[in-house]
Specification:
By secondary structure, the chain is mainly alpha-helical. It folds into two domains: 13-189, Growth Hormone, Chain: A; 207-381, Growth Hormone, Chain: A. Helices cover 81% and strands 0% of the residues. It is built from 16 helices and no strands. Helix 4 (49-77) packs antiparallel against helix 5, helix 7 (140-163) packs across helix 14 and helix 9 runs antiparallel to helix 14 (313-323). The two termini are 40 Å apart. The model has no long low-confidence stretch (mean pLDDT 86).
């Protein structure tokens, strides 16, 4: 008697769609909760900027190493178990990040935190591909919108808690309670399986998967640049007060979140190819405006356009990688997720290197050219 693959006997429905949305919210909340803690960790450990930058690489290394492994584990043990394990790693790391003060402890904790984030991110994107395909509808933008919403709640919520006088540890315990509550809500309906286990356990991305991954890399590179350099640019080049320089990224994040929450409807109306084409051109135009317009008000509008343009490109690319047949999706989805994270990590360094060699304006202009290449790639991809 042959055993049946769970995918052959169970079709994801509305409960699995709900669990996917909550899981994306968990991923966004978890990563954003760390951002307000960075200055506290820096002061507690007595770190200078260079040392802090090297330590933060541990988070990225943990994420990038965990992502392909998560795809393999999800194939063997199911998305439910792997996403749960990743969430529990995040919950264990956050209180430690609020308290540890030695460099070795920070290295270990940041690596663990990054591994948890990478595991959850890779697994929920894999589940999203399966659930969206089963629904026969465009749902990926909405899923990613919950990640963005979780990011806003995490960053703003932790900042508010700290502003009210809570200690970093107390604030992180509140976040852990929220994460556990969200996990309990979604875990019963997470997929008990991953993707088809046929094919190799690991493979270097190639063909259409590498092409899609390269486009993801550029879009995430833009997001990393907006996160780490928009405030510097506004303060340095446009003379805006340092206290308000973060408005550039706030404008970017707001339009990206709204764009994703409305994205499924927009994708159904315009189609995936036009989303990439028009989105890439809109983001490029916004970055040109933000970089070369003389006023900071115009720059804010530019960053808002970048967020709107980029908002639905990556979700559409995840849908595309679920349709390709060159590589098993259990390998392909973690591969493009890893390339995307590499873009976020490389973004600040690449922008800094180019800016040092020329100027910050030239670096942003180069990013805009790459976004035009993404738009052209959408025509080539024909999703």
């Amino acid at each position: 008697m042959t055993s049946l693959n769970p995918q052959d006997t169970f079709v994801p429905g509305r409960l699995q769609q709900m669990s996917t949305r909550v899981a994306f919210f968990i991923a966004g909340l978890g990563i954003a909760a760390w951002a307000p803690l960075v200055p506290y960790a820096k002061a507690r450990a007595g770190l200078d900027e260079a040392t802090l930058g090297l330590l933060l690489l541990c988070l990225g290394v943990g994420s990038i190493l965990a992502m392909p492994l998560a795809g393999i584990l999800a194939t063997r043990f199911g998305c439910r178990r792997v996403a749960t394990g990743g969430t529990l790693l995040i919950c264990a790391a956050l209180p430690l990040l609020a308290t540890v003060s030695s460099i070795p402890a920070l290295i270990a904790t940041l690596f663990m935190f990054g591994a948890g984030l990478g595991t959850v991110d890779s697994t929920v994107n894999l589940q999203a591909v399966i659930v969206e395909r089963a629904s026969g509808k465009h749902m990926m933008s909405g899923f990613h919108g919950l990640f963005s919403l979780g990011g806003i709640v995490g960053a703003a919520g932790v900042s508010a808690l700290l502003g009210l006088g809570l200690t970093p540890l107390a604030a992180m315990l509140v976040v852990v309670v929220l994460l556990i509550g969200a996990l309990l809500k979604c875990v019963p309906h997470m997929l008990p399986y991953g993707s088809d286990s046929s094919g190799p356990a690991f493979a270097i991305p190639h063909g259409i998967v590498l092409f899609i991954g390269g486009m993801c890399f550029i879009v995430f590179l833009t997001e990393g640049a907006a996160l780490d350099w928009s405030a510097v640019f506004l303060a340095q080049e446009r003379g805006i007060d340092t206290a308000y320089a973060g408005m550039g990224y706030a404008a970017f994040a707001l339009t990206m979140t709204v764009g994703r929450l409305l994205g499924d409807r927009i994708v159904r109306k315009l189609g995936a190819t036009r989303i990439i084409l028009f989105g890439g051109l809109l983001a490029a135009a916004g970055l040109f405006l933000a970089t070369f317009a003389p006023s900071w008000q115009a720059a804010l509008i530019g960053y808002a356009l970048v967020g709107a343009g980029c908002s639905n490109i990556v979700p559409v690319l995840y849908t595309a990688v679920g349709k390709q047949t060159v590589m098993p999706e259990s390998i392909a989805v973690p591969a493009i997720t890893t390339l995307g994270y590499a873009g976020i990590l490389a973004g600040p360094a690449v922008i800094g290197f180019v800016a040092h060699a020329s100027s910050l304006s030239f670096a942003f202009g180069l990013m805009a050219v790459l976004l035009v290449a993404v738009a052209i790639g959408g025509k080539v991809l024909k999703v």
